[in-house]
Amino acid sequence: MNNDLDKSIKFNCDVSDARYWGYFSICGLLLRYRDLYRSEKRIKPWADIDRQDIGAWIENKEKHWPDLENADFRDLVVNGKTFNIFDTEGINDSIREHGLIYGAGYGMYMKPTFFLAQLRSTRTISGLTVWTSGTEYVRDLFTSPGMLQGRNVFLRLEPLMVLLLYKFSELNIRRITTLEAAFAQYGFDQKQIIDETFEKRLWELTERYAEILLYHEVAEFQEDIPEWKEILTLAGDRKAEHFLRAVKDLIADTSDYGPYKRIIETQDHAALSLTISLMEGYRRVIYPEIQNAYLQFSQSGDWSVMEEARKAGYDKFRRRRDGIVDLYRESSGKDGFIRQLRDHLQQL
After folding, report:
1. Is the pLDDT at 197 greater than 90, yes or no?
2. Alpha carbons 101 and 149: distance in angstroms, whole number
3. What is each CA distance from 102 to 1, 9, 152, 285, in whole angstroms?
4. What interhelical angle do 259-266 and 303-330 show, nearest 10?
């Protein structure tokens, strides 16, 4: 494949990072720096990093940000044809024969996000084209293991594997019952040595759990409403956006098309434990019912407890979303909506 494509995607990643790095907390930015450095240098996520090397790398990256933050994104040229950077279908039709996959979309804070990776597989599910990637060659600071764009779903195995590894590492820092149960049910010992065997088994877990994430993306497509992207754009601050995204995610999680429904139908205890343990931020705060149901289920083994919590959660978050959409439709302009949204959040 032409190296100019790699350079153009990398340039767009750098422009996006230069514009949006300030949206992340200092701790969050440092963690994203570390992951991006490992990705660019092809360093395994459990290997040590030389502090001087990464320090020089960060310094060099930040030095160029002032010049990049006002730069325009570059169109991508493949086989002599020019594509808009968000034309993932056209670009992938042109590069899939080379075993590559290109992804583009909007992440947290509506940050443009791009990646180029090894193509593992392509399939069609529920009218959606599902692209699964392996090793990543180019990416920006933001990563999400699953991403929906139009009628395309991107499952990114490498970021998912890193996420699962970090969760496994937490077991050596603090005791987390659901996390212990999840990894134990997948056959991982808390004291397990990280070697080639561990890496192989972690990839197997990653591929298996990616199928659970797929149901979340399918449900997001099925439950989507046209106003929501504009509502996210108007959120006004990070707290509001995190809350809005949590509501959207929980609707997908609890939907009849979503992962909890699939887990309950197949009685996949390991996937349930891992899904519960991966809940963070507002998703965990505003949906305590699922945690309580999990504790009851752990004692009784009664899957109907989880199904009742799923249905109740879906109704709860649909009502919240509909209430926010009503605020948006009835508000007098952007400022009026932001003010009403903040008042709404304070009442929660």
Report:
1. no
2. 14
3. 13, 9, 11, 34
4. 170
Instruction: For residue 187, report the phi and psi dihedrals to the nearest 5 degrees.
Output: 90, 20
Strands 128-139 and 152-156: parallel
- Residues 258-303 have pLDDT tens digits of 999 999 999 999 999 999 999 998 999 999 999 999 999 999 999 9
Say whether pLDDT at 1 is over 60: no
Give one DSSP letter per residue of 181-220, joined into a string. Answer: HHHHHTT--TT---SHHHHHHHHHHHHHHHHHHHHHHHHH
CA distance 125 to 257: 12
- Quote the CA–CA distance of 148 and 128 in Å, as a whole number: 9
Cα three-residue angle 275-281-286, rounded to 5 degrees? 85
Per the document, the length of the chain is 348
DSSP assignment, residue 178? H
Q: What are the angstrom distances between the C-alpha of 130 and each of 127, 201, 214, 240?
A: 9, 23, 8, 30
Backbone angles phi, psi at 73, to 5 degrees: -65, 150
What is the token pair recorded at 154?
Answer: 């991107």
Nearby residues of 229 by Cβ (< 8 Å), 6 or more positions away: none
Task: Look at residues 170, 172, 168 and name the one whose alpha carbon lies nearest to residue 186.
Answer: 168
